[in-house]
Write a structure and sequence with these properties.
heterodimer, A: alpha+beta
Amino acid sequence: MTKDIKIKNLNSAADLVLEDRVHKSLYSDNNIFEEELDKVFNNTWVWLAHESELPEAGSYKTAKIGRQPVIAVRDRKKNIHVMLNRCRHRGATVCEGKSGKTKAFTCPYHGWGYGLDGSLRALPKPEEYENILDKAEFGLIKVRTESYQGMIFATLKEDLEPLNEFLGGAKKWIDLFMKQGGGYPIKALGDHRFRFPGNWKIQLENTTDAYHFPIVHKSFISSVDEEAAEVFDFLDGEGFVEDLGNGHSVMVMIPELVDLEANLEEPIPERFADLAKQLSEEGHPDEEVRRLVRAVGGSGFNLNLFPNIACSMAFFRNLVPISVNETEIHHVALGGEGAPEAFNQKRMRLHEHFQGPMGFGTPDDGEAWERVQAGSIAGTDGWIMVNRGMSKLSTSEDGNVKGAVCSETGMRAAYQKYKQLMSKQSEQKGA
Amino acid sequence: MKLDTQLLADVTAFLSIEADMLDNKEYQQWLDLWLESGLYIVPVEHTATDYTNTLNVAYDNEEMRRLRIERLTSGEAVSTQMTEKTVRTLSRFRILDDIDGVVRVRCAYCLYENNKNGIRTYPANIQFKLVSDGGSFKIAEKVVKVMKSSQHLTTVSYLF
């Protein structure tokens, strides 16, 4: 089982992923990183935004597919478009800033103006283009986009399977995740963004890693009350990790919080007693108070969607590869559209408590990830082990491979999808 | 414009002590500088004004300040174990107003951190709300607008 496997016997990045281990060079080899941008990020569905981040006509958000800048925007008819953020004239970005509202996109270099649907509307001094430029052919390049439950994905691969099919077994869990608005539609409440000096796959692994929680997040657990600390003490509980196919996986840490609309009669946890009192005093009926309080702390699971988004308990975790050894993370806080102010305030305060550059959780995760990047270059050869729980697998109700809550089943699922994509020959694309 | 140089001197002296306490990790004394109702805020968006109804990087009331200090000093948090000393510099103090014993003051700030990846710098504009308190002040509000907070920061294991 622990027999050393020498890298010199292997010849492509796909060969560096075995069932129970991945080669450490996947974190630090720049050629592999460049290959990933093409074979993974250009050939799958990449999450870009939640529809609530584009609330009105003209609302936009800038994002990346791999390293390529794109714009997600809502047009006047409320349709959502994703377009490459590249002027068709000489290549400048036509939209800056992370989000906002606009009537049009105008290139700052020579003033080419594009509509919200990307069409080229006007350009200065058009007479020099007479008979040589058809505006209809020079709109911003559209990227194929589809949504599920408000989650907007895009792909550069025109003939990729539909998003519905790609998400497959994960859709059931997305549906459950979206119940945390407490009866109100999910709404993005803002995000925390930070970078760490490490490879993107270290972060991808982390969202399906329950094993680290009591170690890395000891100081967070010390900062909550006894009842909450017990809820977070889930390694010996009934939780599990399930391989959902296509690289996706779910890690259920707190089984009693899988369905936030069930068991509304459960006692209200001590740490939410003030919120319940406030909501009652504001005149919300008992059933609504219970629904809101039950939803306020988020779902009891992390859904890891390959390659760049997780529905992680109470927030979206979006990873953006910057370079082989740098990754940007966006933690998008979520609340309920039209929900009582006190509910959304509590959701934001809970998010600030754990997440973000100054949270009680994220900096410790960041330190651990940074150490992985730094330590993994030691030695001329070596492997990262992802075999935890392999000898105790079972089959879930849905017929999926299932392991213990602190197994590395989710990491193996992601790496097998990675291996499949990295095995393919790269495809060249026009436009 | 008439300058109240005495008030400016008092405020500057107080805020220098506040920064010095953080650099020297005199956290219990630092907690005592606050009004119980005080708020320590690091906003994400510098244009935000309603911090309670906005997502912040940090939004610490009395309880969260105390918990944060426990986290920074308990030794349980791996990100705080190797934290070396920080250096905070303050300058460009401007009294915005002084109404009924509440002084609003704005200043330039930079935190230098000796991080294992090099010396990291965090420039910021800070705005304080200070309440006169028997010849000194108590902090009613500290809002730290750190550069890049709305784009991307690195993780931070201290207080700005």
